[in-house]
Write a structure and sequence with these properties.
98 residues; mainly alpha; 4 helices
Length: 98
Amino acid sequence: MESNLDKVGPIIAELAPWLGASTQGSIADQANSAIQAVRGLGNRLKELCGLPTTLREAGVSEDNLEAVAKAAINDGAVTYNPEQVTLDDALAILKKAY
């Protein structure tokens, strides 16, 4: 969500009330609040059932991140991203998730 904030911030902001997040402030504030709410849900799942929240916790080796990035940019689901995703973009996102 964060990597698409500049492109689709208003759409992300629309999620805020449905996530119980703050609807106060600017559209950017509301979008960031929605993103934090999603993170909170991930953390709650981790607390309840031990769900991993990082790639490292999921057992992904850092050495494999480039291969995962290559697979991601060749996956059909990436066509639904609001911006073109390059290998460098995908790798940066994966490193942040590591």
